[in-house]
Amino acid sequence: MAPSYTLHYFNSKGRAEVSRLILAQVGVKYVDHRIEREQWPELKPKMPFGQLPVLDVDGVLISQSHAIERFLAKEHGLTGKNSLESAQCDMVVDTLSDMMVVAVQIFLEQDPAKKEELKQKFLKEVLPPFAKNFEKMLVKNGKGHIVGDQVTWADIALANIMSTIEAKTPDTLKDYPNIKEIGRASCRERV
């Protein structure tokens, strides 16, 4: 019998979006429990570590976005064809996390001038080395995926973050055609 999934997160994409995209990619039905901010204080003590997202798998609660993503990817065949490809997927996702540490600072900044300064620093200094390396990986792999020859959770995570960056700052990825293409192609089959 297939497990029952409920994904708990705020009413936004945020740290739950890759999990949603993984589930959509593999065509698994789940409950997408969107929590409004005013509901959170009541629910927080019921969640492991008092954080979201949380995935409920038949009553077992899993927290931390990457733990949830990795679990779903393993359960549904999106970690590559072997241990080496699985490690490469982890490498890509962990590298994206490193990059996003700086991006989150932009989101949290309240001062408009400082926010713009952080945004420009991210776009000019932080993003380019990461984007260049991801582009090189895609070119070297030559199979339309960041790892292996089929969609993995690394493709989904990369497409999610890069398409969000591109949507907020058009033409940011103009020099990285393979990254732009993965955003269009990695989830094309079901999402």
Key terms for this structure?
single chain, about 190 residues, alpha+beta, 4-stranded mixed sheet, 7 helices, flat, disordered C terminus
Explain what you see.
It contains 7 helices and 4 strands. By secondary structure, it is of the alpha+beta class. The longest helix has 30 residues, at 112-141. The radius of gyration is 17 Å and the shape is flat.
Radius of gyration: 17 Å
Distance between the termini: 24 Å
Structural class: alpha+beta
Q: What order do the strands of the largest sheet run in, or round the barrel if closed?
A: 2-1-3-4
What is the overall silhouette?
flat
Query: Main sheet, how many strands, which sense, barrel?
Result: 4 strands, mixed
Low-confidence stretches: 187-191
Helix content: 55-70%
What fraction strand? 5-15%
Number of strands: 4
The mean pLDDT is 93
Q: If helices are DSSP runs of H or I spanning 4 or more residues, what is the number of helices?
A: 7
Order of helices and strands: EHEHEEHHHHH
In terms of topology, how is this protein built?
Elements: E1 5-10, H1 17-26, E2 31-35, H2 40-43, E3 54-57, E4 60-63, H3 65-75, H4 83-108, H5 112-141, H6 153-168, H7 177-185
Parallel strand pairs: 1-2
Antiparallel strand pairs: 1-3, 3-4
Helix pairs in contact: 1-3, 1-6, 4-5, 4-6, 6-7
Explain briefly what this protein structure is.
With 191 residues, this protein is of the alpha+beta class. The protein has seven helices and four strands. The radius of gyration is 17 Å and the shape is flat.
